[in-house]
Amino acid sequence: MPIIEMHMLEGRTDEQKRRVAAAVTKAVSEALDCGAETVRILITEHREEEFYVAGLNKAQRAELRERQS
Amino acid sequence: MPIIEMHMLEGRTDEQKRRVAAAVTKAVSEALDCGAETVRILITEHREEEFYVAGLNKAQRAELRERQS
Amino acid sequence: MPIIEMHMLEGRTDEQKRRVAAAVTKAVSEALDCGAETVRILITEHREEEFYVAGLNKAQRAELRERQS
Amino acid sequence: MPIIEMHMLEGRTDEQKRRVAAAVTKAVSEALDCGAETVRILITEHREEEFYVAGLNKAQRAELRERQS
Amino acid sequence: MPIIEMHMLEGRTDEQKRRVAAAVTKAVSEALDCGAETVRILITEHREEEFYVAGLNKAQRAELRERQS
Amino acid sequence: MPIIEMHMLEGRTDEQKRRVAAAVTKAVSEALDCGAETVRILITEHREEEFYVAGLNKAQRAELRERQS
Protein backbone atom coordinates (compact mmCIF):
# COMPACT_ATOMS: atom_id res chain seq x y z
CA MET A 1 0.00 0.00 0.00
CA PRO A 2 2.82 2.44 0.32
CA ILE A 3 1.21 5.90 0.38
CA ILE A 4 3.78 8.66 0.26
CA GLU A 5 3.23 12.31 1.03
CA MET A 6 5.97 14.58 -0.25
CA HIS A 7 6.16 18.14 1.07
CA MET A 8 8.38 20.48 -0.91
CA LEU A 9 8.89 24.17 -1.54
CA GLU A 10 6.94 25.41 -4.54
CA GLY A 11 8.82 26.22 -7.70
CA ARG A 12 9.48 22.79 -9.16
CA THR A 13 8.33 22.26 -12.74
CA ASP A 14 5.80 19.63 -13.70
CA GLU A 15 8.67 17.80 -15.38
CA GLN A 16 10.60 17.66 -12.09
CA LYS A 17 7.53 16.41 -10.25
CA ARG A 18 7.03 13.63 -12.79
CA ARG A 19 10.69 12.69 -12.53
CA VAL A 20 10.74 12.57 -8.74
CA ALA A 21 7.48 10.60 -8.61
CA ALA A 22 8.83 8.04 -11.08
CA ALA A 23 12.15 7.73 -9.23
CA VAL A 24 10.57 7.40 -5.79
CA THR A 25 8.04 4.83 -7.02
CA LYS A 26 10.86 2.72 -8.47
CA ALA A 27 12.94 3.07 -5.27
CA VAL A 28 10.05 2.06 -3.02
CA SER A 29 8.88 -0.76 -5.24
CA GLU A 30 12.38 -2.29 -5.40
CA ALA A 31 13.33 -1.74 -1.75
CA LEU A 32 10.05 -3.09 -0.38
CA ASP A 33 9.55 -5.64 -3.12
CA CYS A 34 6.01 -4.55 -3.96
CA GLY A 35 4.28 -3.79 -7.25
CA ALA A 36 4.69 -0.23 -8.56
CA GLU A 37 0.90 -0.03 -9.00
CA THR A 38 0.48 -0.25 -5.19
CA VAL A 39 2.57 2.90 -4.69
CA ARG A 40 0.69 6.20 -4.45
CA ILE A 41 2.41 9.59 -4.17
CA LEU A 42 0.85 12.86 -3.07
CA ILE A 43 2.84 16.05 -3.51
CA THR A 44 2.05 19.12 -1.41
CA GLU A 45 3.85 22.33 -2.24
CA HIS A 46 4.50 24.97 0.38
CA ARG A 47 5.26 28.65 -0.19
CA GLU A 48 8.46 29.97 1.37
CA GLU A 49 6.43 31.68 4.08
CA GLU A 50 5.07 28.25 5.05
CA PHE A 51 8.27 26.39 5.92
CA TYR A 52 10.46 27.14 8.92
CA VAL A 53 13.71 25.71 10.26
CA ALA A 54 14.75 26.92 13.71
CA GLY A 55 11.78 29.30 13.51
CA LEU A 56 13.03 31.08 10.37
CA ASN A 57 11.96 30.80 6.74
CA LYS A 58 14.28 30.92 3.73
CA ALA A 59 14.18 34.71 3.36
CA GLN A 60 14.81 35.21 7.07
CA ARG A 61 17.77 32.82 7.04
CA ALA A 62 19.26 34.66 4.03
CA GLU A 63 18.89 38.01 5.85
CA LEU A 64 20.56 36.53 8.89
CA ARG A 65 23.54 35.27 6.90
CA GLU A 66 23.77 38.68 5.19
CA ARG A 67 23.94 40.46 8.50
CA GLN A 68 26.44 38.00 9.92
CA SER A 69 28.86 38.24 7.00
CA MET B 1 -11.89 13.52 18.45
CA PRO B 2 -11.98 12.07 15.01
CA ILE B 3 -9.85 14.36 12.83
CA ILE B 4 -10.09 13.46 9.18
CA GLU B 5 -7.80 14.64 6.40
CA MET B 6 -9.22 14.13 2.92
CA HIS B 7 -6.89 14.39 -0.05
CA MET B 8 -8.60 14.71 -3.42
CA LEU B 9 -7.92 15.94 -6.93
CA GLU B 10 -8.94 19.55 -7.43
CA GLY B 11 -12.02 20.29 -9.44
CA ARG B 12 -14.82 19.51 -7.01
CA THR B 13 -17.34 22.29 -6.46
CA ASP B 14 -17.94 23.84 -3.06
CA GLU B 15 -21.32 22.11 -3.13
CA GLN B 16 -19.62 18.70 -3.53
CA LYS B 17 -17.22 19.45 -0.69
CA ARG B 18 -20.10 20.39 1.60
CA ARG B 19 -21.95 17.24 0.64
CA VAL B 20 -18.98 14.92 1.22
CA ALA B 21 -18.14 16.60 4.55
CA ALA B 22 -21.71 16.20 5.76
CA ALA B 23 -21.90 12.57 4.62
CA VAL B 24 -18.54 11.59 6.14
CA THR B 25 -19.35 13.32 9.43
CA LYS B 26 -22.63 11.40 9.65
CA ALA B 27 -20.90 8.11 8.77
CA VAL B 28 -18.14 8.58 11.35
CA SER B 29 -20.45 9.80 14.06
CA GLU B 30 -22.79 6.81 13.64
CA ALA B 31 -20.11 4.15 13.17
CA LEU B 32 -18.00 5.32 16.12
CA ASP B 33 -20.97 6.43 18.20
CA CYS B 34 -19.56 9.90 18.90
CA GLY B 35 -21.09 13.36 18.66
CA ALA B 36 -20.97 15.03 15.25
CA GLU B 37 -19.49 18.14 16.88
CA THR B 38 -16.34 16.15 17.75
CA VAL B 39 -15.70 15.34 14.08
CA ARG B 40 -13.35 17.70 12.19
CA ILE B 41 -12.63 17.39 8.48
CA LEU B 42 -9.77 18.98 6.57
CA ILE B 43 -9.81 18.84 2.78
CA THR B 44 -6.59 19.20 0.80
CA GLU B 45 -6.84 19.45 -2.96
CA HIS B 46 -4.04 18.29 -5.21
CA ARG B 47 -3.43 19.31 -8.81
CA GLU B 48 -3.17 16.48 -11.32
CA GLU B 49 0.60 16.95 -11.44
CA GLU B 50 0.70 16.22 -7.71
CA PHE B 51 -0.83 12.74 -7.58
CA TYR B 52 0.84 9.61 -8.92
CA VAL B 53 -0.14 5.96 -9.10
CA ALA B 54 2.62 3.58 -10.20
CA GLY B 55 4.74 6.67 -10.81
CA LEU B 56 2.34 8.19 -13.36
CA ASN B 57 -0.18 11.01 -13.06
CA LYS B 58 -3.60 11.11 -14.69
CA ALA B 59 -2.38 12.68 -17.95
CA GLN B 60 0.48 10.19 -18.23
CA ARG B 61 -1.85 7.23 -17.63
CA ALA B 62 -4.20 8.54 -20.33
CA GLU B 63 -1.30 8.87 -22.79
CA LEU B 64 -0.18 5.34 -21.95
CA ARG B 65 -3.64 3.89 -22.60
CA GLU B 66 -3.81 5.88 -25.85
CA ARG B 67 -0.53 4.42 -27.04
CA GLN B 68 -1.50 0.90 -25.98
CA SER B 69 -4.85 0.93 -27.77
CA MET C 1 -8.15 9.19 -5.71
CA PRO C 2 -9.64 10.14 -2.42
CA ILE C 3 -7.06 9.25 0.23
CA ILE C 4 -8.40 9.67 3.72
CA GLU C 5 -6.41 9.77 6.93
CA MET C 6 -8.49 9.24 10.05
CA HIS C 7 -6.98 10.14 13.41
CA MET C 8 -8.82 8.75 16.42
CA LEU C 9 -8.25 7.90 20.06
CA GLU C 10 -7.20 4.29 20.56
CA GLY C 11 -9.69 1.88 22.02
CA ARG C 12 -11.95 1.15 19.09
CA THR C 13 -12.41 -2.52 18.22
CA ASP C 14 -11.44 -3.97 14.87
CA GLU C 15 -15.17 -4.34 14.22
CA GLN C 16 -15.70 -0.59 14.74
CA LYS C 17 -12.81 0.23 12.43
CA ARG C 18 -14.24 -1.98 9.70
CA ARG C 19 -17.63 -0.39 10.14
CA VAL C 20 -16.36 3.19 9.99
CA ALA C 21 -14.15 2.41 6.98
CA ALA C 22 -17.07 0.87 5.10
CA ALA C 23 -19.41 3.76 5.99
CA VAL C 24 -16.91 6.47 5.07
CA THR C 25 -16.02 4.76 1.79
CA LYS C 26 -19.70 4.61 0.86
CA ALA C 27 -20.24 8.26 1.85
CA VAL C 28 -17.25 9.50 -0.15
CA SER C 29 -17.99 7.38 -3.15
CA GLU C 30 -21.60 8.58 -3.34
CA ALA C 31 -20.95 12.25 -2.53
CA LEU C 32 -18.06 12.57 -4.97
CA ASP C 33 -19.48 10.15 -7.49
CA CYS C 34 -16.32 8.04 -7.74
CA GLY C 35 -15.72 4.30 -7.62
CA ALA C 36 -15.34 2.79 -4.13
CA GLU C 37 -12.15 1.08 -5.29
CA THR C 38 -10.48 4.51 -5.67
CA VAL C 39 -11.08 5.32 -2.00
CA ARG C 40 -8.23 4.52 0.39
CA ILE C 41 -8.49 4.97 4.16
CA LEU C 42 -5.62 5.08 6.64
CA ILE C 43 -6.43 4.97 10.34
CA THR C 44 -3.96 6.30 12.90
CA GLU C 45 -4.73 5.76 16.54
CA HIS C 46 -3.45 8.12 19.21
CA ARG C 47 -3.08 7.41 22.92
CA GLU C 48 -4.85 9.78 25.29
CA GLU C 49 -1.53 11.44 26.12
CA GLU C 50 -1.18 12.29 22.43
CA PHE C 51 -4.28 14.39 21.83
CA TYR C 52 -4.86 17.86 23.27
CA VAL C 53 -7.69 20.37 23.08
CA ALA C 54 -6.94 23.80 24.53
CA GLY C 55 -3.64 22.34 25.69
CA LEU C 56 -5.24 19.62 27.85
CA ASN C 57 -5.70 15.91 27.24
CA LYS C 58 -8.74 13.86 28.23
CA ALA C 59 -7.50 13.05 31.73
CA GLN C 60 -6.56 16.67 32.38
CA ARG C 61 -9.94 17.91 31.19
CA ALA C 62 -11.68 15.40 33.49
CA GLU C 63 -9.59 16.59 36.47
CA LEU C 64 -10.45 20.17 35.65
CA ARG C 65 -14.18 19.45 35.55
CA GLU C 66 -13.86 17.55 38.83
CA ARG C 67 -12.19 20.48 40.52
CA GLN C 68 -14.70 22.96 39.11
CA SER C 69 -17.77 21.01 40.23
CA MET D 1 13.55 15.96 15.04
CA PRO D 2 10.28 17.56 15.89
CA ILE D 3 8.45 18.04 12.60
CA ILE D 4 5.29 20.06 13.02
CA GLU D 5 2.47 20.40 10.53
CA MET D 6 0.15 23.32 11.21
CA HIS D 7 -3.20 23.44 9.45
CA MET D 8 -4.97 26.78 9.58
CA LEU D 9 -7.64 28.75 7.73
CA GLU D 10 -6.17 31.00 5.07
CA GLY D 11 -6.07 34.71 5.69
CA ARG D 12 -3.10 35.10 8.03
CA THR D 13 -0.44 37.56 6.95
CA ASP D 14 3.17 36.53 6.37
CA GLU D 15 4.02 38.46 9.52
CA GLN D 16 1.59 36.32 11.55
CA LYS D 17 3.03 33.14 10.09
CA ARG D 18 6.55 34.19 10.99
CA ARG D 19 5.43 35.08 14.48
CA VAL D 20 3.61 31.78 15.09
CA ALA D 21 6.53 29.77 13.68
CA ALA D 22 9.01 31.55 15.93
CA ALA D 23 6.79 31.15 19.01
CA VAL D 24 6.06 27.46 18.39
CA THR D 25 9.73 26.71 17.73
CA LYS D 26 10.70 28.33 21.02
CA ALA D 27 7.92 26.50 22.89
CA VAL D 28 8.88 23.10 21.46
CA SER D 29 12.58 23.62 21.91
CA GLU D 30 12.19 24.59 25.58
CA ALA D 31 9.55 22.02 26.50
CA LEU D 32 11.37 19.11 24.83
CA ASP D 33 14.84 20.44 25.59
CA CYS D 34 16.07 20.15 22.01
CA GLY D 35 17.94 22.57 19.76
CA ALA D 36 15.77 25.03 17.81
CA GLU D 37 17.59 24.02 14.61
CA THR D 38 16.07 20.52 14.89
CA VAL D 39 12.52 21.94 14.79
CA ARG D 40 10.84 22.11 11.38
CA ILE D 41 7.42 23.65 10.80
CA LEU D 42 5.19 23.20 7.77
CA ILE D 43 2.13 25.40 7.42
CA THR D 44 -0.80 24.31 5.27
CA GLU D 45 -3.59 26.79 4.70
CA HIS D 46 -7.13 25.67 4.02
CA ARG D 47 -9.90 27.67 2.39
CA GLU D 48 -13.12 28.01 4.35
CA GLU D 49 -14.78 25.46 2.08
CA GLU D 50 -12.11 22.95 3.16
CA PHE D 51 -12.64 22.82 6.91
CA TYR D 52 -15.69 21.34 8.61
CA VAL D 53 -16.79 20.96 12.21
CA ALA D 54 -19.86 18.79 12.78
CA GLY D 55 -20.13 18.61 9.00
CA LEU D 56 -20.49 22.38 8.55
CA ASN D 57 -17.99 25.00 7.38
CA LYS D 58 -17.66 28.52 8.77
CA ALA D 59 -20.24 30.05 6.42
CA GLN D 60 -22.73 27.27 7.10
CA ARG D 61 -22.32 27.63 10.87
CA ALA D 62 -22.87 31.40 10.58
CA GLU D 63 -26.08 30.83 8.57
CA LEU D 64 -27.25 28.32 11.15
CA ARG D 65 -26.72 30.77 14.02
CA GLU D 66 -28.47 33.47 11.99
CA ARG D 67 -31.50 31.28 11.47
CA GLN D 68 -31.57 30.20 15.12
CA SER D 69 -31.38 33.72 16.53
CA MET E 1 13.38 20.78 2.40
CA PRO E 2 11.73 17.69 1.07
CA ILE E 3 9.89 16.10 3.99
CA ILE E 4 8.47 12.72 3.12
CA GLU E 5 5.90 10.76 5.07
CA MET E 6 5.71 7.11 4.13
CA HIS E 7 2.71 5.09 5.25
CA MET E 8 3.09 1.32 4.98
CA LEU E 9 1.65 -1.86 6.40
CA GLU E 10 3.58 -3.10 9.43
CA GLY E 11 5.80 -6.12 9.03
CA ARG E 12 8.85 -4.71 7.30
CA THR E 13 12.20 -5.37 8.98
CA ASP E 14 14.47 -2.58 10.15
CA GLU E 15 16.80 -3.59 7.33
CA GLN E 16 14.01 -2.99 4.77
CA LYS E 17 13.19 0.38 6.29
CA ARG E 18 16.82 1.47 6.11
CA ARG E 19 17.01 0.30 2.53
CA VAL E 20 13.86 2.11 1.40
CA ALA E 21 14.89 5.30 3.23
CA ALA E 22 18.31 5.28 1.55
CA ALA E 23 16.84 4.58 -1.88
CA VAL E 24 14.12 7.23 -1.61
CA THR E 25 16.58 9.83 -0.33
CA LYS E 26 18.86 9.17 -3.29
CA ALA E 27 15.94 9.31 -5.74
CA VAL E 28 14.62 12.59 -4.35
CA SER E 29 18.01 14.20 -4.08
CA GLU E 30 18.87 13.36 -7.70
CA ALA E 31 15.48 14.15 -9.23
CA LEU E 32 15.10 17.47 -7.42
CA ASP E 33 18.80 18.29 -7.45
CA CYS E 34 18.99 19.01 -3.73
CA GLY E 35 21.43 17.88 -1.05
CA ALA E 36 20.63 14.52 0.61
CA GLU E 37 20.99 16.19 4.02
CA THR E 38 17.90 18.29 3.27
CA VAL E 39 15.75 15.17 2.80
CA ARG E 40 13.83 13.93 5.86
CA ILE E 41 11.77 10.74 5.88
CA LEU E 42 9.14 9.76 8.42
CA ILE E 43 7.78 6.22 8.33
CA THR E 44 4.39 5.42 9.85
CA GLU E 45 3.35 1.80 10.02
CA HIS E 46 -0.28 0.79 9.99
CA ARG E 47 -1.77 -2.49 11.19
CA GLU E 48 -3.88 -4.42 8.68
CA GLU E 49 -7.03 -3.31 10.48
CA GLU E 50 -6.00 0.30 9.78
CA PHE E 51 -5.83 0.32 5.99
CA TYR E 52 -8.82 0.00 3.69
CA VAL E 53 -9.26 -0.08 -0.08
CA ALA E 54 -12.85 0.10 -1.31
CA GLY E 55 -13.87 -0.12 2.34
CA LEU E 56 -12.20 -3.49 2.93
CA ASN E 57 -8.95 -4.38 4.67
CA LYS E 58 -6.52 -7.09 3.56
CA ALA E 59 -8.20 -9.90 5.48
CA GLN E 60 -11.65 -8.90 4.19
CA ARG E 61 -10.42 -8.77 0.60
CA ALA E 62 -8.89 -12.25 0.99
CA GLU E 63 -12.19 -13.60 2.35
CA LEU E 64 -14.04 -12.02 -0.53
CA ARG E 65 -11.75 -13.62 -3.12
CA GLU E 66 -12.10 -16.94 -1.30
CA ARG E 67 -15.87 -16.77 -1.47
CA GLN E 68 -15.85 -15.71 -5.10
CA SER E 69 -13.55 -18.51 -6.26
CA MET F 1 -9.14 25.95 13.83
CA PRO F 2 -5.45 25.44 14.16
CA ILE F 3 -4.87 21.68 13.99
CA ILE F 4 -1.30 20.76 14.74
CA GLU F 5 0.38 17.44 14.09
CA MET F 6 3.63 16.96 15.97
CA HIS F 7 5.96 14.16 14.90
CA MET F 8 8.69 13.29 17.40
CA LEU F 9 11.01 10.45 18.29
CA GLU F 10 9.53 8.18 20.95
CA GLY F 11 10.93 8.35 24.44
CA ARG F 12 9.34 11.51 25.82
CA THR F 13 7.45 11.11 29.09
CA ASP F 14 3.77 11.90 29.43
CA GLU F 15 4.83 14.90 31.51
CA GLN F 16 6.93 16.24 28.61
CA LYS F 17 4.07 15.73 26.18
CA ARG F 18 1.67 17.64 28.43
CA ARG F 19 4.21 20.42 28.78
CA VAL F 20 4.89 20.76 25.05
CA ALA F 21 1.16 20.66 24.24
CA ALA F 22 0.42 23.41 26.77
CA ALA F 23 3.32 25.56 25.55
CA VAL F 24 2.48 25.17 21.85
CA THR F 25 -1.21 25.89 22.46
CA LYS F 26 -0.31 29.10 24.29
CA ALA F 27 2.15 30.12 21.55
CA VAL F 28 -0.36 29.50 18.75
CA SER F 29 -3.25 31.11 20.56
CA GLU F 30 -1.25 34.29 21.27
CA ALA F 31 0.50 34.55 17.90
CA LEU F 32 -2.67 33.95 15.87
CA ASP F 33 -4.97 35.69 18.34
CA CYS F 34 -7.43 32.80 18.57
CA GLY F 35 -9.02 31.05 21.52
CA ALA F 36 -6.99 28.21 23.07
CA GLU F 37 -10.07 25.95 22.83
CA THR F 38 -9.84 26.11 19.01
CA VAL F 39 -6.32 24.65 19.07
CA ARG F 40 -6.02 20.87 18.66
CA ILE F 41 -2.72 18.99 18.89
CA LEU F 42 -2.03 15.46 17.70
CA ILE F 43 1.27 13.84 18.68
CA THR F 44 2.67 10.96 16.64
CA GLU F 45 5.75 9.20 17.96
CA HIS F 46 8.20 7.49 15.65
CA ARG F 47 10.71 4.80 16.56
CA GLU F 48 14.34 5.52 15.68
CA GLU F 49 14.09 3.12 12.74
CA GLU F 50 11.31 5.31 11.34
CA PHE F 51 13.06 8.65 10.99
CA TYR F 52 15.81 9.38 8.48
CA VAL F 53 17.94 12.41 7.67
CA ALA F 54 20.08 12.16 4.55
CA GLY F 55 18.92 8.54 4.32
CA LEU F 56 20.32 7.56 7.73
CA ASN F 57 18.63 7.02 11.08
CA LYS F 58 20.05 8.01 14.47
CA ALA F 59 21.96 4.77 15.01
CA GLN F 60 23.43 4.88 11.51
CA ARG F 61 24.55 8.49 11.95
CA ALA F 62 26.22 7.58 15.27
CA GLU F 63 28.06 4.68 13.60
CA LEU F 64 29.18 6.99 10.82
CA ARG F 65 30.58 9.54 13.24
CA GLU F 66 32.32 6.72 15.15
CA ARG F 67 34.01 5.48 12.01
CA GLN F 68 35.00 8.99 10.93
CA SER F 69 36.58 9.96 14.26
From TrEMBL, chains A, B, C, D, E, F:
Pfam families: Tautomerase (PF01361). InterPro entries: 4-OT (IPR018191), 4-OT-like_dom (IPR004370), Tautomerase/MIF_sf (IPR014347). Keywords: Aromatic hydrocarbons catabolism, Isomerase. It is an enzyme of class 5 (isomerase). Homohexamer. The keyword Nucleotide-binding does not apply. Residues 2-59 form the 4-oxalocrotonate tautomerase-like domain. It catalyses: (2Z,4E)-2-hydroxyhexa-2,4-dienedioate = (3E)-2-oxohex-3-enedioate. It comes from the Bacteria. The active site is at P2. Catalyzes the ketonization of 2-hydroxymuconate stereoselectively to yield 2-oxo-3-hexenedioate. Its EC number is 5.3.2.6. One of its GO terms (molecular function) is isomerase activity. The gene is lapI. Coiled coil: none annotated. Belongs to the 4-oxalocrotonate tautomerase family. This is 2-hydroxymuconate tautomerase.
